[in-house]
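Justification of computing resources. Each target in the renewal requires a structure prediction run like the one illustrated here; the chain below, 293 residues long, is used simply to show the kind of job we budget for.
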Amino acid sequence: MVLNVSDRIAEMTRAGKISDDDASRFSRFVETCNRELMTHPVITDNKYCAWFATGEANRELIRHFVVQFSVFSNLFLLAQLMKVINAGSLEGMRASKEILANELGVIFNKQGNKLEDVTDTDREGDPDIVTIEGSVDGGTFRFRAAHFEWLLQMGETLGLGFNDLGKRRHGTPATLFFCDQLSAIYGNEDANIAEGASFAVENWAAAGFWKQLVAGLDAFKQAEQSDLPLAFFTWHDRIEDQHAGHVMDELEELYFTPEFDEEKFLKGGREMLDGVEAFWTGLNEHRIAAAYA
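Resulting structure tokens:
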């Protein structure tokens, strides 16, 4: 995955909105991001996800994966709340609230997407139905649209109940390290560090790991658990495909603000990717150990 400067930079330069020197400086910074962030092994060589996609995970490994992912998903709410609180601008705060509110169950409000058209009210929060576009502003809240509840539905088919999922006590040291790094770096009060972490997280998410997880879960579903709901993962795969095109746009807007600090941004990105890698390394070490148990 390689970041490229968009045509918008050339258009802004021709229009006199940025200087040739600033455009060149930005291009050099993008090259630095490619060299220092985009080559991180959690983006280029995620061994656990590559293995998972082969469909070799048995029931116990699938259960372990779902439990650890539920801890990450639930504790991510804390990191996202910190990002709201520590936002450097009203626009940044609103963007962070979009994510937090949607995670909690506010369905994106998109013109032409009407919940009243859904005749089965129990499915109004179903990820197979709710849109990945729009805004939570004016959106409808549904308990069943909370992302954690989608994982609960998945867990039920695997014999996992409410108190088996999402709690800090269920996390391995690697999972908890990742979650704590999210709060400390992604939710950092220094906007440059936080934005670097956010940039790194978006690029990790857009690198294709959701598709690998869907492939592995679908294989398990076909082989052993025909009623396993996959919509939590397929929904996130769809929304990350949409986000992938926004990553560079966000960096281009941020870079030319007076407060931008290249070193802090890169520091936040590097440290956040190390945290993400710890999560997957923990899962990989667990599955290797299980093979020799």
